[in-house]
Amino acid sequence: MAIPDVLASLLLQAVKDHQLGGAFLMLGRQRFIGSRKGRSAELFAQAIQKYLPGVAEEDLCNPKDDYAETFFSRLGFTSVDSLDFSDFEEASLIHDLSKPVGKKLTERFDVVYDGGTCEHVFELPTAFRNIDKMLRPGGVLIGHSPCNNWINHGFVQISPEMVYGFWAKAMGYEVLELILQPTLPASVEKIARTTDPNVTGKRPRILGDLPQNAPIIMHYVVRKPATGGLGGRAYQTDYVNKWDTADPS
Length: 249
Prior knowledge:
Elements lengths: L1 E3 H13 L4 E6 L3 E4 L3 H14 L17 H6 L2 E8 L8 E2 L14 E6 L9 H11 E14 L11 H11 L3 E9 L10 E2 L2 H4 L5 E2 L8 E8 L13 H9 L4
Helix pairs in contact: 1-2
């Protein structure tokens, strides 16, 4: 898993706009790719200038490898950990996300970053509930999940319905951001948003024109309740409405 310029720009914006800090966890040990070419590289340079004035892109790189600890430290986090199934990339924490986390990881982190890990975990509900358990009250999950035109990339493609249906409706999280972000350098500005099914009563509708046949990443930022998380079950909104209005006779 890796962080190219377009996703690095979104991370810079999310962390600084929402004033995030504290203990940080990335799922999988992410690699920092940085600038590629074209418009996405220009946008990344602008994001660095805006959010990290006086910092050069090379200052965001690990000095001895291409992983992302330095990048996240430069964003202002006091500690940066990585969690993986094995130590093949020397993650600082080893745990199988398909199994519940224990007390040592419970409420340990202020921010968790899923940069493309959870779609590879077959037991996705367990992985998501592990994230909830690892976050402190008021903590934030930043997700970058392949959402369209990623056939066979993982077990699943995570959609806006999952964010609104699970994180918001079932778990009581606040949705701070959700966009559909093309990843190819030439199309990075053709982003789209969606409707909120918890408002409309219907599954999310895309607002905007996404490029055809281009890989799309869903960027989302959700905040855990400071008190009294719900811990409920997720159901698709439009089906719930049909069940609620059905004539029992």
